[in-house]
Write a structure and sequence with these properties.
The complex is a heterodimer. Chain A has three helices and 19 strands. By secondary structure, chain A is mainly β. In chain A, strands 1, 2, 3, 4, 5, 6, 7, 8, 11, 12, 14 and 17 form a twelve-stranded mixed sheet that branches. In chain A, strands 9-19-18-15-16 form a five-stranded mixed sheet, with no helix packed on it. In chain A, strands 10-13 form a two-stranded antiparallel sheet. Chain B folds into two domains: 40 residues, Roll (SH3 type barrels); 209 residues, Fumarylacetoacetate hydrolase, domain 2 (Alpha-Beta Complex), CATH 3.90.850.10. In chain B, strands 1, 2, 3, 4, 5, 6, 7, 8, 10, 11, 12 and 15 form a twelve-stranded mixed sheet that branches. Chain B has a five-stranded mixed sheet with strand order 9-17-16-13-14, with no helix packed on it. The longest helix of chain B has 9 residues. The relative contact order of chain B is 0.23. The chains are: A mainly beta, B mainly beta.
Chain lengths: 247, 258
């Protein structure tokens, strides 16, 4: 099952996704995707990983970390599937990051890695845009780089964990205007989902709806107003959005 | 109305109450003794802290901040998020994180946003503030500011705030406030908000320049330069004239946060 949140006729609705173009409401009505605005899935705290693929770390001239590099995403930066992301005026380099996101399903405190997958309810996709011009070496990457309004597309939906038998063997791709720019596989993650759940739940309580965006493989490139960016995680979904210029 | 709101539970029921200047809790015409109420975390949206924001601290660290890995002192405010699991009420215990014997209080002024704020110029910023509160940003000792402070500042219960929302009109000049930190009743630290490198209007202009703030989002700043240690059993209080007192006791690791 795939679960999404959409706005239709002024109402925010939880829907089941029958197909990418056909949605079923809780009371059984069918809606065409063309009639709705996709919202980010329901979420709590969003943790994101930096440098969690060795090839990507090398691409940025960083040694792969020995401890997970985790930062938090501001909820104000989220947008849903097929929404717009605003590229700030006057910047040199803003890039996409296609990421598999694990969605926590029940309260997790001090969970061991061998038990961790029982705490994962499902998966979604994040495009964790970064504006590299704004990097400074304090709490890097900072909120201006990673939590700017509209620069965290999330969705389109959450796929039940049961429908993703091996989340550590999924192709991750980004296409810009149809051209393949980024391609990797979740098998190359440095810190896997159970390791991350164990690591975080050791000192903080993960709640249902909290999310861990697991980092991106190599293949970054600049995106410009007018570009249509699709990030895909095999078996989870294709999350599309369009870059627009700052007004 | 006193302009000093708080949120409590009493006999299993949540209520918004007023707090008189003498500390009495006023609830529907009743005066409640403080020990009869269970304080709640005030309503909040995102909670964002500003680190390295005292001029004295930046001066003292100047050589360090010019060195690797920083390269230069911060050119923009150094922001961090306190997520929901960290937020904790007045009088609630703060459990030590696993393997830690010491955590360090961080007294700060919490600025409560009153309405949707996007690209707000500094000269208009104060009109977006509806209230102030006290914040205590408990942290593991920080040896570096290079990576986001998740291990150091995101452990459960580490973000204490409240108990009051004091209406902005009652705090005409937050830049003159002094925050005092007490451990077991002994005054251990003072932070003067006249030492802020980025003052509150400048912070609001910077933050709303790239992210939308909404009603009840909290920005907090002040965080002392030299932190002091607190251990299990210690009672830590942050006080400020006009804003009341925020008090929490440290408890050992592994005790569930109620």
């Amino acid at each position: 099952m795939r679960h999404a949140r959409v706005r239709h006729a002024g109402m925010d609705l939880d829907v089941a996704v029958e197909s990418p173009e056909l949605l079923r409401t809780a009371d059984g009505r069918m809606l065409a995707a063309a009639e709705v605005t996709w919202l980010p899935p329901r979420h709590g705290t969003i943790f994101a990983l930096g440098l969690n693929y060795a090839d990507h770390a090398a691409e940025l001239s960083f040694k792969a970390p020995e401890e997970p590099l985790i930062f938090l995403k501001a909820r104000s930066s989220l947008v849903g599937h097929r929404q717009e992301s605003v590229r700030p005026a006057g910047v040199e380099y803003m890039h996409y990051e296609a990421e598999l996101v694990a969605v926590i399903g029940r309260t997790a405190r001090q969970v061991r890695r061998q038990d961790a997958m029982q705490y994962v309810r499902g998966y979604t996709v994040c495009n964790d845009y970064a504006v590299r011009d704004y990097l400074e070496n304090y709490y890097r990457p900072g909120l201006r780089v990673k939590s700017r309004d509209t620069l965290t597309p999330l969705g389109p939906w959450v796929v039940d964990a049961a429908d993703v038998p091996d989340p550590h063997n999924l192709a991750v791709r980004t296409r810009v205007n149809g051209e393949l720019r980024q391609e990797g596989n979740t098998r190359d993650m440095i810190f896997t989902i159970p390791v991350l759940v164990e690591y975080l739940s050791r000192f903080l309580t993960l709640q249902p709806g909290d999310m861990i965006s697991t980092g991106t493989p190599k293949g970054l490139s600049d995106v410009r107003p007018g570009d249509v960016v699709e990030v895909e995680v095999e078996g989870v979904g294709v999350l599309e959005n369009r870059i627009v210029a700052e007004s | 109305m006193t302009g000093r709101d708080a949120w409590i539970r009493r006999a299993g029921v949540s209520a918004q109450v007023q707090v008189a200047a003498d500390g009495a809790v006023l609830h529907g015409g009743e005066r409640l003794p403080e020990q009869d109420v269970l304080w709640q975390v005030p309503p909040h949206g995102m909670v964002i802290g500003v680190a390295l924001n005292l001029r004295a601290q930046l001066e003292r660290l100047d050589a360090v901040l010019h060195d690797k890995p920083y390269g230069h002192p911060p050119r923009t405010p150094v922001l961090f998020i306190k997520p929901e699991n960290t937020l904790n009420a007045h009088r609630a215990p703060v459990p030590l994180p696993p393997d830690a014997s010491v955590i360090q209080p961080g007294a700060a002024l919490g600025v409560i946003i009153g309405r949707r704020a996007q690209r707000v110029p500094a000269r208009e910023a104060m009109s977006y503030i509806k209230a102030y509160t006290l914040f205590n940003d408990f942290s593991l000792p920080e040896s570096s500011w290079f990576r986001p402070p998740v291990v150091t500042k995101c452990f459960d219960g580490s973000g204490c705030l409240g108990p009051l929302h004091v209406a902005a009109a009652q705090v005409p000049d937050p830049g003159t406030l002094e925050l005092r930190t007490f451990i077991n009743g002994e005054l251990r630290q003072r932070v003067s908000l006249d030492d802020l490198a980025w003052v509150i209007p400048a912070l609001i202009e910077f933050v709303t320049g790239f992210m939308t703030l909404n009603e009840n989002d909290v920005l907090f700043t002040g965080l002392p330069a030299e932190r002091v240690d607190a251990r299990a059993g210690d009672e830590v209080a942050v006080e400020c004239e006009g804003l009341g007192r925020l008090c929490n006791r440290i408890i050992p690791a592994g005790v569930a946060n109620p």
